[in-house]
Amino acid sequence: MRLPDEPDLPFQINIVPMIDVIFAILTFFIVSSLFLGRSTGLPVDLPKAASAQNQTANPLTVTLDQQGRLSLNKQPIQPNELQPRLRALVGTQSVLVVLNADQRVSHGQVVAVMDQLRQIPGVRMAIAAKPPQQ
Length: 134
What we know:
Layout: H1 16-36, E1 60-64, E2 70-72, E3 75-77, H2 82-90, E4 95-101, H3 107-118, E5 123-127
Parallel strand pairs: 1-4, 4-5
Antiparallel strand pairs: 1-2, 2-3
């Protein structure tokens, strides 16, 4: 029962816990989306290199798998299609192209692909490698 001299309190909704939950969910989605973009290549067994560095740009990927099959951004292509397709993707801008070559692929195949990449103006080339386990 209310007393007659008691003031009416306005109705209030405390939104602080709701904001905390929304920020927690937002943080979860931001952090999880960072891990989604890291699998950009086909499964190859990369060689290890002590000087391997992470690349921050959004590169195009050329992959040579264990059987010597060539792929551009996970799409299988023939070796003679590599230069025309890359020229169309690169245009006049400078683009980083990462070569993912399985360690069991012959050196000659890797050099042939590198030679094709170097002939395209505006292509900066990187070779994918895993850092050695310590």
